[in-house]
Amino acid sequence: MNRVWWIVLWWAVMPSCLAAQDLQIQLPEQKLTWSLAQIKQQVPVQQIKLVDPVYNSEKSFEGVSLLQLLKAAGYTPGQAADEVVLTASDGYAPSMPLEYLLDDQAVMVFAESGKKDFEFALVAQGKAMVSPAPFYLVWKQGKAVEKTRPWPYQLVKLELVSFQQRYPKLYPTNAAQNSAAYQGFLLFKQSCISCHSINLQGGELGPELNAPKNVTEYWTDDHLKAFIPNASGYRYKSKMPTFPQFSDKDIDHLVAYLKHMKSYKIQTP
């Protein structure tokens, strides 16, 4: 088979292969792996229609309640967890407070309605078009929560954690809760940890920011404060999104957090 036909075949079968991938679910007291067929056995499948901010259009999907999925896997209120970490196949790993799930608006979708998967529902990722399979997290409120809830796709793992126990090396030790460094940490936790790590804890899509060199040791404050809200103004084709919602004070707090963490570097990986 020549290379051209191999590429054609790969694109034809890849979305279906991804859709068949298992989902790892890790709770404080147990870990399990379920196939899509097993998930359908455990949780009722629902149809959901919404104005989707990733596709920027109205979409209809099949999926299951994320809250009900976690309960079926063994989650019970009172467990030592306050955060949900959602890991994609490329290392993107956003997290969100567990309380976001309590109103049961989060849905783990696995197919476009009426289709066997996402074969005809690819999403733009830079210049490429990719399948959101095997699982894509959406919210029933649609675009109304575009900026306040994560919308990750290609999900392969869910993990319920105590945030401080899961990420102790990125906590701003000895920073008062009313300090600029602590406020910057809260912003980092909300908007940056999905792609970036501090002391190798966090996402893997973007660069590590503290070890062995802290980013403030090789970027000036002026450049860093300009880069954070608008990376594409520095680098064409940057994968880092813009952050127009960040105020100047927010940026100052983020830089204060990064500078604070300079004193708490890990020594070896």
UniProtKB/TrEMBL annotation:
Protein source organism: Rheinheimera mesophila
GO molecular function: electron transfer activity; heme binding; metal ion binding
Highest classification ranks of the organism: Bacteria, Pseudomonadati, Pseudomonadota, Gammaproteobacteria, Chromatiales
InterPro entries per UniProt: Cyt_c-like_dom (IPR009056), Cyt_c-like_dom_sf (IPR036909), Cytochrome_c550/c551-like (IPR051811), OxRdtase_Mopterin-bd_sf (IPR036374)
Entry-linked PROSITE patterns: CYTC
Residues forming coiled coils: none
Signal peptide extent: 1-19
Keywords assigned by UniProt, alphabetized: Electron transport, Heme, Iron, Metal-binding, Signal, Transport
Residue span(s) of domain Cytochrome c: 179-262
Pfam families: Cytochrom_C
PANTHER family found in the cross-reference section: CYTOCHROME C-553-LIKE
Name of the protein in question: Cytochrome c
